TrEMBL record:
<feature type="binding site">
    <location>
        <begin position="8"/>
        <end position="13"/>
    </location>
    <ligand>
        <name>NAD(+)</name>
    </ligand>
</feature>
<feature type="domain" description="Lactate/malate dehydrogenase N-terminal">
    <location>
        <begin position="3"/>
        <end position="140"/>
    </location>
</feature>
<feature type="active site" description="Proton acceptor">
    <location>
        <position position="173"/>
    </location>
</feature>
<dbReference type="InterPro" id="IPR022383">
    <property type="entry name" value="Lactate/malate_DH_C"/>
</dbReference>
<feature type="binding site">
    <location>
        <position position="94"/>
    </location>
    <ligand>
        <name>NAD(+)</name>
    </ligand>
</feature>
<dbReference type="Pfam" id="PF02866">
    <property type="entry name" value="Ldh_1_C"/>
</dbReference>
<feature type="binding site">
    <location>
        <position position="33"/>
    </location>
    <ligand>
        <name>NAD(+)</name>
    </ligand>
</feature>
<protein>
    <recommendedName>
        <fullName>L-lactate dehydrogenase</fullName>
    </recommendedName>
</protein>
<dbReference type="GO" id="GO:0004459">
    <property type="term" value="F:L-lactate dehydrogenase (NAD+) activity"/>
</dbReference>
<dbReference type="InterPro" id="IPR015955">
    <property type="entry name" value="Lactate_DH/Glyco_Ohase_4_C"/>
</dbReference>
<dbReference type="GO" id="GO:0006089">
    <property type="term" value="P:lactate metabolic process"/>
</dbReference>
<comment type="similarity">
    <text>Belongs to the LDH/MDH superfamily. LDH family.</text>
</comment>
<feature type="domain" description="Lactate/malate dehydrogenase C-terminal">
    <location>
        <begin position="145"/>
        <end position="298"/>
    </location>
</feature>
<keyword id="KW-0560">Oxidoreductase</keyword>
<dbReference type="InterPro" id="IPR001236">
    <property type="entry name" value="Lactate/malate_DH_N"/>
</dbReference>
<dbReference type="InterPro" id="IPR018177">
    <property type="entry name" value="L-lactate_DH_AS"/>
</dbReference>
<dbReference type="Pfam" id="PF00056">
    <property type="entry name" value="Ldh_1_N"/>
</dbReference>
Amino acid sequence: MKKIVIIGCGNVGLSYLKKLCMLDMSLDISLIDIDEDRLEGEILDLEHSLVYRNSNIKIKFGSYSDCDDADIIVITTGVIQSTNDRMSDLEKANEIIIDITNNLRKTNFKGIYLVATNPLDVMTELVSHYTDHPYNKVIGTGCMLDTARLKSLISKKIKVKANDINVYVLGEHGNSQFVAWNNANIGLENLNRFLSLDEKEELEDKTRHMGSIIVKHKGYTSEGVASCLLELTLCIINDLKKVYSVSNYNTTYDVYLSTPCIIGRNGIEKVINIKLTDEEEEKLEEASEVISEALDKILPKELY
């Protein structure tokens, strides 16, 4: 039975938990959250929902001792985004990550961290730094979510199923993200045949601001990133070796940012080196600088 620990059971954590409960597999799930009373109610409600599914999923209110033999720890704790810029909540988010990782360092956890706390790339780097965990075993959802949003928008635009559109959003999960249009295709045909320059720019801009659009209407985002966490979980548990644009340690720029990676049992099995145009390379470097500048506000450069 695979064991998953979820740290932070707000909107994203609970959405991810509910998606796990729909799986037809054996899972031991431990939940860590400061609001024990509310969480107890959520656990009871979910347990009742599992009865008629004849489920072999066990859920409990946990503690950091449950991390010792866990396969995956999912960190969704964070602050509610207060502006259109995820970096604006950097200091508060860092305080939360410090508290969590202080507890995690006392455990014997050897598995894989999945991080969904904003500002995403910075927080993923900090989890890696504070825990001294191997780079391949600390993964941020990163631009995997932005890629899903872009595919959805393109699918509606050109009437092609989203999963048949091969395109990636790269860089920062934030305002400096960009689309690798040069490598984007449907089948073997480049997306340039389907979209004009103006249409591509419009889709890219809408993708960049999609989180804010959802927050404006709904108050928060949860389902998209929870689906990313679920997909990464399945890739790890089932060793699927699927490719996603996740936040990973980039050796060239010495920071965490999103590029396509093969995800399997060992976390990041391989980073895919795609050929970018000169302009795209510049955008990737600019994204790395945004992330580095944010890290510099928290850590001296020599410490990461």
